[in-house]
User: Which sequence fits this backbone?
């Protein structure tokens, strides 16, 4: 059975990874013998300078999901490379490093620092974090998206993924802009901007006032968006949004995703990514599909 | 311990499915759940907690964190029914299987050699992490005087402290309405504390205003203390950074760097 897939010139043994920000920042899960089975690990987004994150409360539970407003708490790219990356590299699992800059130049400078780093197989551009008090997201503007992708592509040969936001009128237009600018793939979707109000105090339940909705609640919207984008772009899609089970992941693959990421559901069941991988294999055996590429985008109309 | 010296988590050992041994109501709103989890019983240190998946489906979505109340023959959790998650737990029957992550989090530091009195100051359900502490200290440090200052709303909220007493703990109670012990806040019991920085060690767990009062008292008398904190949690494994609280050293995760922190460090 062939499970391996490609993004740009990077090859991954299987299509299952974890969504950025849901898999820790350090060695915490690394003894999980099972981590080694993943197609890739995607650590939490890093920024150019360290960020302390948003004030508490940072998370709130919602029906079949959650809101978060973490605010990209991270040590900054230099400290990340020095103190966190080695442990990730030691796992031997291919890495997709998520970065966020406040200008195309910051994005490009960070990408440059990742050149030559062992096991860094792709760079994911977080163009879509809703929790940083920015007026608008890069991924809400086709031109801004293209600019960042171009700036990064100039500095690195590592394949580049553009991570898009679902809070847009037409996500296909943004995906196409990223593709034209040279992106090697699209990651989608990030969280939906959302809020929860405590009716007793009439205050938001989050310290940051608003947050991003994720988890199984958003999955059907994600599947539709991936389907739409897959119709119009040729580059591979890394899909996330509410994946909890192998069946959820299969929906995304059939809709046109090349890779799938388990995000929020890691918090409910940290062994879910491996269960998803095993479930995909089981499905392929049962359906007599010998190559994952035959499954990708195979939706019947 | 600083962050990087923390023991690494062995996932295959810290997530498991365990059988409920018993689940019973103790008084008014307090319940006690007992399940058999050999690896939790073996590895838990006082102050650590478990993260229980209360339901198989997606509601409620998050797991729920609970201090380990006892880790001897079986693992025990002492809980108050406050919402949908704990409501579901209260319906567990003997033989039910539950999915539990743990033990996780930091533990209480053992008292120093010079310590003579340890004072546990608890409000409501905050008493839970202290029983295992006294289980350990009772054996290790027979010379210690252990006192518990306990504050509850009313009679029905006061847990009969039988096991604490069996461990040699002297308990003092304050209730808001005076139905048990003295009337008023737990701070009225602070006069039981021997204010000698060399020989007294404080531990506290409970509502923020109470722990804040303990912090002020400790600062005034230069006493050392530790606080077990709570925050809403998603992963309980230091992965999501969702359970951060403010400390004098910046944000820290309650689930991984805590729940037990140096009392002086927390910004309430
Ligand atoms: C490290 C730790 C140890 C804990 N130990 C115990 C224990 O030994 N016994 C016990 O009864 N409870 C303990 N708690 C609190 C317990 O986790 C909550 O009471 C429980 O999650 C409530 O779930 P629910 O669905 O019944 O109520 P919900 O409807 O979720 O909540 C009811 C109320 O509890 C608050 N709450 C919810 N989750 C938490 C949380 N994680 N921490 C603090 N408050 C919360 C909510 O804000 C709300 O006001 C602990 C919490 C932490 C973080
Ligand atoms: C607690 C939390 C933190 C997140 N942090 C990041 C992040 O740092 N960078 C990023 O690109 N996405 C982040 N995300 C978004 C996820 O990677 C993912 O795109 C989104 O949650 C949808 O997938 P899911 O429903 O499977 O979680 C975060 C999500 C959550 C719940
Ligand atoms: S609950 Fe996820 S980091 Fe603490």
Assistant:
């Amino acid at each position: 059975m062939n499970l391996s897939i490609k993004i740009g010139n990077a090859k991954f043994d299987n299509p299952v990874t974890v969504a950025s920000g849901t898999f820790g920042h350090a060695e915490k899960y690394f003894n999980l013998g099972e981590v080694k089975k993943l197609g890739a690990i995607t650590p939490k987004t890093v920024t150019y300078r360290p960020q302390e994150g948003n004030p508490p409360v940072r998370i709130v539970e919602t029906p079949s999901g959650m809101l978060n407003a973490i605010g990209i708490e991270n040590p900054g790219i230099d400290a990340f490379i020095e103190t966190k990356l080695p442990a990730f590299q030691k796992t031997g699992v291919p890495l997709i490093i998520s970065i966020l800059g406040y200008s195309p130049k910051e994005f490009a400078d960070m990408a440059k620092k990742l050149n030559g780093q062992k096991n860094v197989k792709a760079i994911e551009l977080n163009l879509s974090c809703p929790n940083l008090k920015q007026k608008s997201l890069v991924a809400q503007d086709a031109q801004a998206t293209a600019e960042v992708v171009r700036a990064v592509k100039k500095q690195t040969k590592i394949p580049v993924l553009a991570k898009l936001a679902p809070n847009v009128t037409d996500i296909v237009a943004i995906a196409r802009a990223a593709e034209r600018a040279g992106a090697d793939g699209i990651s989608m979707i990030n969280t939906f901007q959302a809020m929860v109000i405590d009716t007793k105090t009439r205050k938001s339940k989050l310290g940051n006032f608003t947050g991003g909705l994720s988890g199984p609640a958003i999955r059907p919207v994600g599947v539709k968006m991936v389907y739409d984008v897959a119709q119009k772009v040729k580059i591979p899609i890394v899909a996330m949004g509410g994946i909890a089970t192998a069946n959820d992941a299969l929906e995304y693959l059939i809709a046109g995703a090349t890779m799938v990421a388990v995000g929020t559901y890691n918090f409910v069941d940290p062994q879910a990514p491996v269960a998803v991988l095993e479930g995909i294999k089981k499905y392929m055996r049962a359906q007599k599909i010998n190559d994952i590429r035959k499954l990708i985008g195979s939706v019947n109309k | 311990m600083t962050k990087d010296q923390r023991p690494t988590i062995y996932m295959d050992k810290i997530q498991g499915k365990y059988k409920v041994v018993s689940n019973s109501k103790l008084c008014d709103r307090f319940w006690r759940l007992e399940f058999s989890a050999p690896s939790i019983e073996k590895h838990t240190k006082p102050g650590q907690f478990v993260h229980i998946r209360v339901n198989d489906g997606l509601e409620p979505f998050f797991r729920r964190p609970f201090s380990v109340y006892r880790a001897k023959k079986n693992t025990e959790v002492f809980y108050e029914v406050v919402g949908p998650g704990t409501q579901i737990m209260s319906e567990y029957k003997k033989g039910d299987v539950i999915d539990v992550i743990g033990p996780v989090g930091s533990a209480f530091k053992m008292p120093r050699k010079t310590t003579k009195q340890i004072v546990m100051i608890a409000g409501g359900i905050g008493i839970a992490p202290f029983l295992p502490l006294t289980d350990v200290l009772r054996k290790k440090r027979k010379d210690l005087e252990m006192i518990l200052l306990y504050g509850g709303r009313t009679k029905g909220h006061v847990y009969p402290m039988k096991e604490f007493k069996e461990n040699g703990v002297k308990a003092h109670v304050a209730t808001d309405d005076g139905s048990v012990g003295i009337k008023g806040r737990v701070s009225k019991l602070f006069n039981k504390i021997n204010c000698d920085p060399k020989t007294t060690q404080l531990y506290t767990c409970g509502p923020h205003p109470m722990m804040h009062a303990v912090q002020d008292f400790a600062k005034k008398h230069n006493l050392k203390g530790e606080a077990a904190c709570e925050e809403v949690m998603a992963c309980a494994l230091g992965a999501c950074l969702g359970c951060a609280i403010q400390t004098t050293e910046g944000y820290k995760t309650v689930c991984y760097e805590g729940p037990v922190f140096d009392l002086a460090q927390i910004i309430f």
Remarks:
- The longest strand of chain A covers residues 120-126.
- The radius of gyration of chain A is 18 Å.
- Residues 5-54+72-193+213-294 of chain A form a domain with the TIM Barrel fold (CATH 3.20.20.70).
- Chain A touches chain B at residues 21-34, 44, 52-53, 55-66, 68, 70, 73, 215-216, 244, 264, 266-271 (CB under 8 Å).
